[in-house]
Design a protein that fits this description.
globular; two-stranded antiparallel sheet; 18% strand; disordered N terminus; ten-stranded mixed β-sheet; TIM Barrel
Length: 385
């Protein structure tokens, strides 16, 4: 989704637009990893690549209490990280607490446990349930460690139907992880989602590539989508329109962005062990650095940790010098773009043209002087993917 944010055009994450802005809240969204455990070992997930070094664990009640005391800082709380959130027995309680704090609440699930969680989800403390899929029946089964798509869609459709009958505001959406091999399945999946009664299908790129295999699965080369993928996405938009379901496609090209969809000025991630950082891609449950693959091969990225809950409050960490150093270039880049936009004058005159040229020079200088952090190097999200 592209939208003007503070006067600047940026790509926004899938849950933006779900909630109304709450004046005075620092964060648009706080993502909390309640567990790094999962019911599957999916071929497209870093858990599969990094299984030997992966640290399975659950968010503990004492860490949650620290988070809960500062939930008023966030508009939306998304209770999911690198694991399957429905595995955590405290999820219903924590969702209710986040709602009591005035936040909207969402989860992303592989759908395995949706049937068992149905009753508490329908209590009204969840605003968004996103079911993640990776193809039509056989493709989904292959890429998602044996997952049964019909079962997942059946549960998601039942949830959507029961939610509407109770007049809840909850949305049930499908996330389709786009790759080279599953792209043709998108058309069938959209029709299946429509028949199930889901609210929306949105497509995401494989932007966390921790191995050469995952890099090879990407639907884009450099800054360009593969031509056959473009054709599929055009057809998908048409099919969704005919099927009467909302559809949001992914980025169609790559270019350096001012700030990625998970702009750290407005978004923060908390891992299950209480570490606070910019995003899920920079805080893996590993004791080592994070592998990242691109056209240049493999590089290693050090995790970015603003602080640890328990040693500090969330509010203190978000106002710390460590976080400020990380978000500073994002703030300067967005400010430069905002100044450039405000300088645009549609009056057809030489004076207006000269002012625009000067503003553009200042903008380019600001972007050059404030590059994205090294930890964002070669991340597809930094190119708008």
């Amino acid at each position: 989704m592209i939208r003007l944010q503070d006067g600047v055009k940026v790509r926004l994450p899938f849950f933006t637009g779900l909630f109304h802005r709450r004046k005075g809240r620092l964060l648009r969204a706080l993502q909390v990893e309640v567990t790094s455990r999962c019911t599957r070992s999916c071929a497209l997930c870093p858990r599969h690549d990094l299984a030997h070094d992966w640290r399975d664990g659950d968010l503990q009640e004492d860490v949650w209490r620290v988070i809960e005391s500062d939930l008023k800082l966030a508009e939306h709380v998304h209770l999911q990280g690198w694991g399957e959130p429905l595995l955590h027995p405290m999820l219903p309680v924590w969702a209710a607490r986040a709602r009591e704090a005035g936040c909207t609440v969402g989860i992303t699930t592989n759908g395995d446990l949706l049937d068992m969680a149905m009753d508490w989800i329908l209590e009204g403390n969840i605003d968004l349930v996103t079911v993640s899929v990776a193809g039509a029946n056989e493709m989904h089964k292959s890429l998602r460690g044996g997952s049964n798509l019909d079962k997942v869609l059946g549960a998601a459709g039942d949830l959507a139907d029961r939610s509407r009958k109770r007049h809840l505001r909850m949305k049930v959406k499908m996330s389709f992880l786009l790759t080279r091999v599953n792209a043709p399945d998108l058309l069938e999946v959209i029709e299946s989602a429509s028949r199930a009664g889901l609210d929306e299908v949105f497509v995401t790129h494989l932007d966390c590539r921790t191995s050469e295999f995952l890099y090879d699965q990407s639907a884009f080369n450099g800054d360009h989508l593969l031509p056959e993928i473009v054709d599929v996405l055009k057809a998908a938009a048409l099919i969704a329109r005919r099927a009467g379901i909302r559809f949001r496609g992914p980025a169609l090209w790559g270019e350096e962005v001012l700030a990625c969809a998970l702009n750290p000025l407005h978004f923060t991630f908390i891992s299950w062990d209480g570490r606070v950082g910019p995003c899920v891609n920079l805080l893996f449950p590993l004791d080592d650095s994070i592998p990242r693959w691109s056209e240049k091969g493999e590089i290693r990225i050090e995790p970015v940790v603003y602080g640890r809950l328990g040693r500090s409050t969330l509010a203190a960490i978000l106002s710390s010098k460590v976080r400020e150093r990380f978000v500073f270039p994002f703030r300067e880049r967005l400010a430069a773009e905002k100044r450039f936009v405000s300088a645009v004058d549609f009056e057809p005159s030489m004076r207006a043209l000269e002012a625009l040229e000067q503003a553009e020079e200042k903008r380019e200088k600001a972007l050059h002087d404030h590059p994205l952090p090294d930890s964002c190097s070669e991340c597809p999200k930094a190119r708008g993917w």
